[in-house]
Amino acid sequence: MIEINNVEKRFGSAEVLKRINLKVEPGEVVTILGSSGSGKSTLIRCINGLEALSGGAIRVDGHDVSTSAGLAAARRRSATVFQLFNLYPHMTVLRNVTLAPIQVLGQPRAEAEAQARALIDLVGLTEHADAYPQRLSGGQRQRVGICRALAMQPRYLLLDEVTSALDPEMTGEVLAILARLAAEGTTMVFVTHEIEFARRISDRIVFLEAGELIVDMPTEAFFSEEGGLAVPRIRKFLSKMTKD
């Protein structure tokens, strides 16, 4: 379980997260929605320890990410896919995917490569295993990013606007992979602007506004007139997003 308790994050005098409380159970897909600057990506970066908390606590399977030992344990249980790929350009696809399992998990190279090739095949990139990132399209690079995260055998997959830099066709490629993972029971915390996709795969929707969590609802309730749409700010947000 990911437990977020009264989490605060400040950058100088700016309050980016304000006493956020959230729990993610194993097997859930929880989507975080909100306008730009609402704190969505910052929350993901706090979960994986890329940002230090200003207050509160985050625990991943009981491990406190504010301590060195707790963060190391949490990172063995979670993996993050970023919006800008972050692949090593001087390494092949196969090497990008095997690097962390070998160096962090201590997997034997042969085992790591066999696992990596299976993941690369899963996302339809078998023929590109020995290619370098610059030879791939944006959608293909993002699929490699997903492989790299899954190679760590995480219990929790954190996804931060993974389609924001992609064109519609490439976005469809990546979302198809994520839909498959969700159907297989992968636990995800998913920051996105892909409203219809979120509606299709999410168990719950969380809505942030100016650093505050204002709604945490089952997906069906969030999109209902009696639930999320009864909140004027959410109705306005959804109306704008669906028009765009």
UniProtKB/TrEMBL annotation:
<dbReference type="InterPro" id="IPR003439">
    <property type="entry name" value="ABC_transporter-like_ATP-bd"/>
</dbReference>
<dbReference type="GO" id="GO:0015424">
    <property type="term" value="F:ABC-type amino acid transporter activity"/>
</dbReference>
<dbReference type="GO" id="GO:0005524">
    <property type="term" value="F:ATP binding"/>
</dbReference>
<dbReference type="InterPro" id="IPR003593">
    <property type="entry name" value="AAA+_ATPase"/>
</dbReference>
<dbReference type="InterPro" id="IPR017871">
    <property type="entry name" value="ABC_transporter-like_CS"/>
</dbReference>
<dbReference type="GO" id="GO:0016887">
    <property type="term" value="F:ATP hydrolysis activity"/>
</dbReference>
<dbReference type="GO" id="GO:0005886">
    <property type="term" value="C:plasma membrane"/>
</dbReference>
<keyword id="KW-0547">Nucleotide-binding</keyword>
<dbReference type="Pfam" id="PF00005">
    <property type="entry name" value="ABC_tran"/>
</dbReference>
<keyword id="KW-0813">Transport</keyword>
<dbReference type="InterPro" id="IPR027417">
    <property type="entry name" value="P-loop_NTPase"/>
</dbReference>
<keyword id="KW-0029">Amino-acid transport</keyword>
<feature type="domain" description="ABC transporter">
    <location>
        <begin position="2"/>
        <end position="235"/>
    </location>
</feature>
<keyword id="KW-1003">Cell membrane</keyword>
<dbReference type="InterPro" id="IPR030679">
    <property type="entry name" value="ABC_ATPase_HisP-typ"/>
</dbReference>
<comment type="similarity">
    <text>Belongs to the ABC transporter superfamily.</text>
</comment>
<keyword id="KW-0472">Membrane</keyword>
<keyword id="KW-0067">ATP-binding</keyword>
<protein>
    <submittedName>
        <fullName>Glutamine transport ATP-binding protein glnQ</fullName>
    </submittedName>
</protein>
<dbReference type="InterPro" id="IPR050086">
    <property type="entry name" value="MetN_ABC_transporter-like"/>
</dbReference>
